[in-house]
Amino acid sequence: MYKQLSRPQYEALIEIMELEFVLIELNLYLDTHPDCEEALRIYNDLAMKYHGMIMDYQHEYGMIHSLSVNRTEPGEWNWIDSPWPWEIEYKKL
Amino acid sequence: MWLYEKKLEYPVRVDKMDLRMAKYLFTQYGGPDGELSAAIRYLTQRFTMPTNRAKGLFTDIGTEEMAHWEIIGTMIYKLTKDATPEQIKEADLGGFYAIRNKAVFPVDSVGNPWTASYIQAHGDPIADLHEDMAAEQKARATYEHLIRLSDDPGVIDTLRFLREREVVHFQRFGEALNYVQEHLESKKYY
Questions:
Q1: A&B contacts, CB < 8 Å
Q2: Alpha-carbon distance B134 to B104, whole Å?
Q3: Are B175 and A31 in contact (CB under 8 A)?
Q4: Does residue A74 have a cis bond before it (omega within 30 degrees)?
């Protein structure tokens, strides 16, 4: 039930989580500073990078965003099989 | 609408089973200043916000609060999942276990079920924004209490992240309050 991800998968997931957090933070900042060109530029650069990372991750390890393309060999719905967030064993500090 | 992302906003590392800490954490899961209250509060108030900045901010902070609710639920799940009925009795959680086994149910740390009376929505953006800023401060204080109650470095790390988010949300609500106030002033005619 508890899931220890492989090292490459775990590192890719953590990298996605870190980048997503930066985007969340910039999103809130832009909500109250919509004219800040610098924040918008950083947001767009990172958002492009983020979506590329999500595509690569999902291609390798299965879906983590709903409504994504579900690529598997052989054809199988992998949304339910990729690890559920509360069952992942995150590495100790 | 909302779409699910199959990941947490921040990792939840738990060193060992700790039923007592899980019990305390319930306050942020189903208690008055908890993450469920926060999400429902902002996602309710957003409908009557007067500016697009505020509508955006309430939608986005409300959504982030749901991710925090998931983080707290994950902490409780991980802290309790290996407990035996005997250990649950010792931690004074037998009353909870009798009804719900190890369900992660929205109650506060002393067992009161979550209620909409914890939140407010007045349809008045100034009143609502002040409530929200107070709510963020109350949640910040609660996280500081919880940090003092834990000796698990992983739990403390996640709680520190959540505490910091309260500070950021307070800041953003303050900016929204200034903007909404200016907006309302500009619409007054004498």
A1: 81
A2: 27
A3: no
A4: yes
pLDDT tens digits for B2-48?
999 999 999 999 999 999 999 999 999 999 999 999 999 999 999 99
| Average pLDDT across chain A, whole number | 92
DSSP per-residue letters across B125-174: HHHHHHHHHHHHHHHHHHHHHHHHH---HHHHHHHHHHHHHHHHHHHHHH
What is the C-alpha to C-alpha distance for residues B125 and B121, in angstroms, rounded to an integer? 9
Look up the ipTM and state it. Answer: 0.95
Evaluate the CA torsion angle B6, B61, A25, B164 in order and state its sign: negative
CB contact under 8 A, B11 and A90: yes
Q: State whether residue A3 is helix, strand or coil.
A: strand
Cβ neighbours of B17 in A, within 8 Å: none
- What does the alpha-carbon distance between residue A30 and residue B59 come to, in Å, rounded to a whole number? 13
Is there a contact between A39 and A26 (Cβ–Cβ < 8 Å)?
yes
pLDDT above 60: residue B60: yes
Counting Cα atoms < 13 Å in the Cβ hemisphere of B16 gives 5
For residue A4, give the DSSP letter.
Answer: -
Reply yes or no on whether the pLDDT at A49 is more than 80: yes
Contacts of A85 in chain B (CB under 8 A): 6-8, 70, 74
- Do the Cβ atoms of B11 and A17 come within 8 Å? yes
User: Which CATH number is B19-186's, of 1.20.1260.10, 3.40.1280.10, 3.40.50.12780, 1.10.3720.10?
Assistant: 1.20.1260.10
Chain A residues near residue B6 by CB distance under 8 angstroms: 63-66, 79, 82-85
**Rounded CA separation B172/B80 (Å):** 35
